[in-house]
Amino acid sequence: MADLSDSVTLLTGVGPKRIQALKELGIATIHDLLYHFPFRYEDLKVKDLNEISDQEKVTLKGIVVATPILTRFGPNRNRLVVRLLVQQQVVIVTFFNQPWLKDRFVPDQEIAIFGKWDQRRQSMTGMKIFTAQGDDHGMDAIYSVNKGIHQGVLIKLIKEAFDKYKTLIPESVPASIRAHYRLLNEQQIVGQMHFPKDNAEAKAARRSAIFREFFLFECKIQRLRGIERSVGNGVALHYQLPAVQEFISKLPFELTHGQKQAVNEIAKDMKSPHQMNRLLQGDVGSGKTVVAAIAMFSAITAGYQTALMVPTEILATQHFEKLSALFATMDVKTALLTGSTPTKARTQILEALRTGKINVLIGTHALIQDTVNFKNLGFVVIDEQHRFGVDQRKKLREKGIAPDVLMMTATPIPRTLAITTYGEMDVSSIREMPQGRLPVKTSWVKNKQSEQVQTFLAGQLAHKNQAFVISPLIEESETMDLKNAQALYETYVTAFEPKYKVALLHGQMNNADKNAIMTAFSQDEIQILVSTTVVEVGVDVPNATVMIIYDADRFGLSQLHQLRGRVGRGVKQAYCILIADPKNDIAVQRMTAMVATNDGFELSEKDLELRGPGDVFGAKQSGLPDFKVGDPVADFNVLQAAQIEAQQIFSTDPDLDLPDHQGLKTYLRHFGAIEQLD
Question: Where is the Helicase C-terminal domain (predicted)?
């Protein structure tokens, strides 16, 4: 029995070569072909000459006034010139390398031609011809194609498939939802996406197709979450509440509302028999580490070991010092394991870990080596999680038996990414900063004002403050990054030494040298640290009050905000100075946004809007699904509505047993995999 899973080889003219060409477009079945939607349309409605703009693609209708002239000027190169009388004006229409069209033009016959209009010459480059019946020739769909499949061939195949299979196109969006949002049914979506009569039909079809795509994706995520929860694949951590409350009471500060809420959400997950998979996001300095410490201590009171993995040794050392101080009043044994840990100390740590004498292990990728074995790992924290690959995160989880996992990021996730990329995770957000923290004052200056910046810096140094100076970023070139940093370092040495100590930090240094410089900087033995973006993550120097970023327009908003977060971590007023001469409007908007707000969540939304999803964490890191019709940024309201509807369905009918959900159930059975998700 025929259905949409039939192979495209059943269509006319699909042989081995064409099969391969279609496969390269992601088309193997009739379903693939019917849902290979056009990415734009050309309106073929006939227009008057006085309505047309220069270089506009348009359809003109007129009378052929003479026999067309064909001129050849080289092998396979020719030009066909047609004179067309349009509204009492003779328009020259030229077709290139289509000599076979000559016989289509008969003097005194009315004909319609689609092409590109040249306002200055009052002429047209022809692309397509029609019979002249009526003024409305519909919409011409434009598809993604390749060398093996041209537009005309693809359209013929789609038309044949639609004619043969349209009655077999199943409904996947429940009728109640279609009625609520006034959406087309599935057959109408497919028909009008490919063959719209006019712009209104094309818009209606695209609107329904966008909702359908987002809704089905969100249903896949809800199904995935349901499967994970139904398996009961975790361990309930029965922590000792009085001990946890005592630990919180001994903290030298009051938790913010956001921190308290995050702690409660994590604690609820820990009590559940399902494996926790939660993302804790908060701006730089919002207090995520304290929340993680409370959760780790809770796991320890339940009899389990905990681990914290971070991307750099500098950050690992800093976390170790911070957590050791927080746990100092409790009976908790912490250890630090990195690539630089001496062999003897490493052997002792591994033995103490295996026997359960270590409660908290903090480290870098060293944590996931085969020789690292825990006695009873129950809680895992991964900081700056987007800097680790899927396999690395998985390896750490596998060190325990389904431990609860808390991922942390200081790059606030835009709502779009939270709904798509992180849809299978629970998300906790800390939006406010700790009391008494002064917002960093940000200013944007041009390169010609560099001397004034150095004068301002001298004033800050005179008040015993310290500064970061970030060298220009050259994409894909560590060598150029280093040259820039070296040149900038020499400039600052000339300007400020010997009165103030200047040091250089870059990615090509070995870890021991990097750590030595950062230690000296944190102890105020170095006053100005010239660096590449290696300082972006996690470095905590409360006495640093100035961040100067050269050629700031080369950076994305999220990266600029991360760099700005390196200062303002103490009680003094801090400053971020962006030095940039932007070359385009988007770069200007980035500088303006940085000056306007310190809110990382707001900036993450703006960054996504300006740069596109692939660049927020880097193309490979974003993980944003490859939607075919919808744009999760531009169509965010539709995405949000689709998520709400999917959540509602799976909260009330998780097994999709209701009659209205049978089409959705069938769809998920056939197309339920989400390859993009971890």
Answer: 449-609
